[in-house]
Amino acid sequence: MPRTTRAKPSTRRTAPKSAAEITSIPPDELAKRRERVLGELGGAVGLLFAGDQVGENPFRPHPHFEYLTGVADEPGAVLLLDPKHPVAASRAVLFLRPLDPELERWDGLRESIGGPLKARYGFTSIQRLRFLARSLNAAALRSRKLACLHPPAAYDAPLSPDLALFLKLAERIPGLEIVERMELLAKHRAAKSAAEVALIRSAGEATKAGFLEALRTIRPGINEFEVESALDRGYRAAGSRRHAYRPIVGTGLNATVLHYHANDATIAAGDLVLIDSGAELGGYASDVTRTYPADGVFTKRQRELYEIVLKALDAGIKACVPGKRLSDMDAAARKVIVAAGYGEYFIHGAGHHLGLEVHDANPDEPMKVGAVVTVEPGIYIPQERIGIRIEDDIEVTRSGPRNLTASIPKTVAEIERAMRRS
Fold first, then answer.
1. pTM above 0.90, yes or no
2. CATH architecture under which domain 193-421 falls
3. Half-sphere exposure of residue 141, counting CA atoms within 13 Å on the CB side?
4. Which whole number is the average pLDDT over 197-207?
């Protein structure tokens, strides 16, 4: 999915081949993530907030919180990081809302604090939120330094939740220092572990199932929403319970609109159908774009432009190596399209990091081993009712880029063959 703005060594990793083989990050990995952050805080106290439930929308915690805890279903939860606590087991404490049997009769039963809950997320200490104020005061008095870990808020938005609380604390405990460590977790999240890559790969496999279902569905005369419904069927059949983001199914002129979401036009003969969609699995996103001919066969003009975008995709993928930046990848892909004379029709950045968010944490530094990024060049010519984008999810490895979504039909021959079988 395109943005509209310009943009420790590890061993070789292996990944499961199906979504059923791994569905969450192992608890020992979650514990190691917290230990690593504790060691990098320089003795400062850190807080991460899951966030609150908003209306009836499905709850999704702040990705920094989810990254360090694995907890995805506890609105209001808080993680306290207290590196100077004299008891090692109390240096990372998860605080949860009290149980409320009456509310839970409406919203679902919640688990009591105990061994199973601790084991699931690798915690030795879980407490209720009523004890947070006391624990935070003690941590602040020990450290005298508080580290902001949440991303900064815009000047006209509410303060980030950790900074807002720290300012209140500083009014009550003289001499506290508040320091900025807002890039710390973004840097950690940018290099994925083997388990994270496995989840992204599995999300990609579910995405493939959805795209194959869409290929069997596309034909002139049907509505774009029917294609979106086919994606949904494929994702669910492959084990994914939700889309990673709002799907885009745009035909004809709609394919030239970057974030088109209506998905409610009739597919006309001779048009192209652009699908930008991805399944989510275990909290991790896939992000894939393919462009298909409504009739099952590309016209000469469509094929000409499609091959340029495909060549740009290959060039961008080759630039996904350790030490290169996303801007280097963008330049490599863009060079192909500019050389072909269509530079003004490539109007977005060529990719982004991928993980817990579809536009994942993006620290200002070169790509590391384990990074997973999208590569998504495109050409959009409204006058011709042609929009073409092709996107794959790429793992950065020591031995070169590894395409996690390469098996989703992409070449002209693959697409036309698949649509003939449909």
1. yes
2. Alpha-Beta Complex (3.90)
3. 8
4. 97
